Each structure stands twice: as structure tokens, then as C-alpha cells.
Hints:
The structure is a single chain. It is flat, with a radius of gyration of 38 Å. Mean pLDDT is 85; it is low at 1-19. It has a 5-stranded antiparallel beta sheet with strand order 2-1-5-4-3. The longest helix is centred in the middle third of the chain and has 18 residues, at 314-331. With 682 residues, it is of the alpha+beta class. The protein contains 24 helices and 27 strands. 36% of the residues lie in helices and 30% in strands.
Amino acid sequence: MARSKLIKTASQADEMKMRSPVIxxxxxxxxxxxxxxxxxxxxxxxxxxxxAEDFLTSxxxxxxxxxxxxxxxxxxxxxxxxxxxxxxFNIRIRHSDGRIRCLKGQFAKETRAGGEVVLDLLLQDVKSxxxxxxxxxxxxxxxxxxxxxxxxxxxxxNNCVTTAVSKSLEAAFxxxxxxxxxxxxxxxYDTYEEESADAxxxxxxxxxxxxxxxxxxxxxxxGKGEKLWLDDCKYPLKNEAGExxxxxxxxxxxxxxxxAKESLRDAQIIxxxxxxxxDIQTGIWTSSDVLDGIFGIDQMYAxxxxxxxALIHPSDRAMMxxxxxxxxxxxxxxFDKEYRIVRQTDHAARWVHGLGxxxxxxxxxPLRMRGTIQDITERRQAEEQLRLAASVFTHTRxxxxxxAADGAILDxxxxxxxxxxxxxxxxxxxxxxxxxxxRHTKExxxxxxxxxxxxxxxxGEVWNRDKAGRIFAELLTMSAVRDAEGNTQQYVALFTDxxxxxxxxxxxxxxxxxxxxxxxxxxxxxxxxxxxxMAQAHRRNQLVAVAYLDLDGFKAINDLHGHDAGDQLLMNLxxxxxxxxxxxxxxxxxxxxxxxxxxxxxxxxxAIHPELARLLAVASQPMxxxxxxxxxxxxxxxxxxxxxxxxxxxxxxxxxxxxMYRAKLDGKNRYYIFDHGYDLSI
Length: 682
């Protein structure tokens, strides 16, 4: 975001402000429906970036340039009645460069002899009005604190112009300041994105209007494009007469805290975990958004004891009431129970796992219970499916492996043998490690077993190796089977061979990036490699050459001998070109008989000539296709990177394409290097 050069230091800023005239402009308007501007002073161009004649000829409307949030001021200024004959105000107006300027205004209205109401308006740039530095008002101890604090401290005058800042704010300031520059003397619109500056300005106006303090937590976008969260507090500054003459503010960068909070919230959403807070004395409870989603309730739902009981499944209600009364309230135990609820939105029965902890007063009387509730419906359904699978797993198409708690294989089904090649008798008593492919790290398996222990299940994709040594992909779900006391008895693994799906994905990747006829990179992959080559050229201080190749006489072969012969010629030529090029170079097919070659790491322009000669020789070699003896040649256009002026990949290709047409015009079967002095002029 471009802007004018900032003043170099705060002291220099003040000296220049003292010497510099106030930037201002005077307007005289007739307050009619058309609202013509009768006169404008010359200062308007310095103030708003427009010439006086722009307003006089109505090409620019002063009213339409006013910030949308300052409409009340506009309603005071422009109506054709004299309710308030004069006054002053602060206003925001959009400059011709699109950015907001904070201005100080004075107005006077009068009714002339003919009955016309005219508005005499003076607008001044508030930055040019600043005279005194805010630091002059500070005690030595406060100045010392500003030098060392990590919080962002700032002062503003009653026109919202920054008059002093702490070193921490200057050092970590959100705008792209150069060495020695300062934010003193600027407004928030000079340093922040407009949306953030609008929010800060609203708080400033509250303080300047006499409100004791304002507090704002807001995410801002810096001049560097970074997103920061600031916790911003502002307080009024008053003179001895009690008049507000400015404001004092403190901001703290809470980005890490907000990101952690957002991550926790996202984690709770993903895990389906909601939180609650129950007041034991009143029976009133509050809940998080995630918990409301689990229960299917909204903000209007009655959060009372009766409301909570109504959410519990009728078949579990008596059991839960007894558990809460006997175990939790009676013994003071932690709440830890799995039970069913009825979701209010669709009346579906859902399984949840509730956890809670009581808070007690000095007399050990329970006051509150805080806890979490997690939707475990899917896990309970999976456990039920596993119990059913124990009796019918022989007939399923999925591979099943049951192990003891220590990992020893207890049983496998026929699908396991079909997928892995191992017979049942070969694996009984063994360990699942016999299937390891070596593609996963120790950390991968550690996370898998940690999830099994903590949650009771794990699901994901795993690469394993069958008895014949073939590596295959499987979609695996592992679950812990627990007894009534919650002790793990077995683990059950269900897996499906998804190798064909993975291979299909690989083929789709091939189709997306390679030419189906020749197997060469297509236009998409060429673009990626060309961008990499251009970046590498800067790092290595080498040249990149782009050669655009078009076959001479290829259309005649298609017309005379058919497209099959033409396709075979293209495939053979692609192989020849790949063999003729260096491994570091890329040859791609754009379509038809057009190819592009990207040459890397050329020390100079001369180094390309033998490479191009080799390409011409390869293209012109006779080619035997069945009984046909086919002949073509090539016309090649070349462009180099980097160039004297900045150029992108698309323009580089266009230059090579243009040079190729010059090669054809010059007689074909040759190459032409793009000439910037000549080719750009035609």
C-alpha cells in the first residue's frame, strides 16, 4: 500500500509541523436540491486531491465523499434550513486516492436576500493542526515505563492524531515503516486497513465525548497483510478545567491467546465436545454452542433442572436421576457416565459421555458443577457393529483381525486371507507387525495406539505388505472391546483393500498433469515447472531458455495418411526429444504439433545454440511408421529469462511463440531468437 514518505523522527515531525502551514480548503455552497458549489479555495487539491473546478462543475460531490458513518454530520450541514447557524465538528472524507482523511470542520449558514440558504464551510487536515508533542505531558517515570513496556501505549489529541507512542508500538508497528520513521502525527487511517481504523475511530469518539473508558478486542490487518488480535483500552485525557483534550490508550497483542482459544474451540467442534456450568442452588445451567448442537436446542430453551431432565432419553431418565442423587450429590463423586439423550431438532436418540466436577463452599456444600458432554453415538454404533461382526465376520468382504489386549492375533476371517495371502494358521498367536510395509514411522503407530487406549478406536489409511511382498493400501478401523468394568479384552481391526482406489487417484493425477498421447508434461505441469525454473534462475544467476517448437509439414501427414500415423509420429518424436535433452530440461506438449522445451542453467545465450541444433536434427530425422517413410521438420522460437525488465511466465511463452512464427516466415526448419528491439515493435 503506497503512501508518501513519513517524517523521520517525532522531534523532526514537530519542528516541521510548527513550520508547515495548515492544510485547509474553504467551500461556499448553495443548499438547494442540486447543491451547487459557488466557490472553492485553492487548498482543496492539497486537502482532498481534487481541483477546485471538479467541485465547481459538479464532477465531484463533497457530500458523496463523506464517510458513511458520519451521516449525522452531513444531515446537520446540508439541509436547506438554518436550525444551527454555525458550529464546528470532526469528519472523515475520502481523498481522491481512495483513502480516508480525518478533517476538522467549521461551518456557518445564512439566508440571503433572495431566500437562498448558503453554507460557508472550512475544512482542515487534522494532521496539519497538531502542534504539541504528547510526550511533553508525561512524567519522567511514565516515560521510562513507555521505554520498557511490551504493551503498546499511545496518546492522541482531540482530533484523533497520534501524539506519542511507546517504543514497543513503534518497533512492532503494523505499518511497513522504514528506518527512522514514526507514527507520531498520523491518524489510524494512515496506518491501518480502513475496517480496523473505523472501529478504532468509533472508540476514540466515545472517549472524546466523555465516556470514562472503552474496551475493544479486534482483529486487524496490518500494512504487511498480517492478521493480529489487539486488546485495546482507551481513557480520556483532561485539562485542569476538566475538558477532554485527548486520549490515552493501551493495546496488548493477544494473537497467540486468540489462536489458542480458536484452536480449542475447533478441537471441541471436531471431537463433538460441549461444555456446561450448573448452579446447584438454583438449578440453572449454561451451555456452549457445541453442547447446544449436540442437544439440538437454541437460546430460547429453558435451562433448568426440568429442562435438563427432558433431554435425557426416557429409558435412561430414572437411572440418571438415581446416579446423580446417589453418586454425585450423595458421595461427591465426579460425574462420569454414558447415557442416551433425545436430540430436540429431530428427536433422534444419541449416546453421550458426560463428565463433571463439583465445586464446594467452605462447609463442603456443593455449589456448582462444571463439565463436558461428548457425542459418542458413532463409537457406540461401532462397538455394536463389532459385537455383531464377532458372529458373522466370516462372511464379510472386509478383512477382520481380532487380537488380545497384548496384540497377539486371536482370529482372522477369510477376507483377511484373501487380502493378505496369509492363512489363518500362519498368523494365529503372531503379531500384526508381520504386515508392516515400512512406509510409516514409529510416531504413526504410537499415535494409533494412544488413540486406541484413550478413545477406544482409531480409523485411517495404512500401507501394509502381503505375504507375496506386494504393498497395498487399506482403510483400517480398529476398536477396543471392553468388558462391563471398562477393561480392554480384545482389539478388532476391520480393513478394506483400497489399492485400486489409490491407483485410480494416481491415474487421475497423471491425466491432470501429463499429455495422454505422448506422456509428456502438459500445459498445467509446464506452467509449474517454468515458474520453478524462473525462480531457480535468480538463485543460481543462470539463464532459462524457453523454446516453442511447431512441426513443419505435420498437417499434410494427417491429411494424407490419417490421424493414427500422425499420432504415432508425435509419440516417436516425443521419445526422441526426451533422449536428446538433458535430464534437467523439460519438454512438454501443448497440443497438436506444438511443443515447448525449458532449458535450465544456461551460462549465457550462446549455450543454447547446440541444444537447438540438436532439436532441429531430431525433428528432421526420417521416421518409419509401418510402411510409411515420413519426414517433418521444426520451426523453433526462443526467448530468455531473466530480461532487463520484469516479465512473467505467460509473457515469456508468448515471446517464444512469436519468435517461432518468425522462424516459419524465414523458411522453416530453423530457429529464431526473440529480438526485443525488433519483435516488440511489430
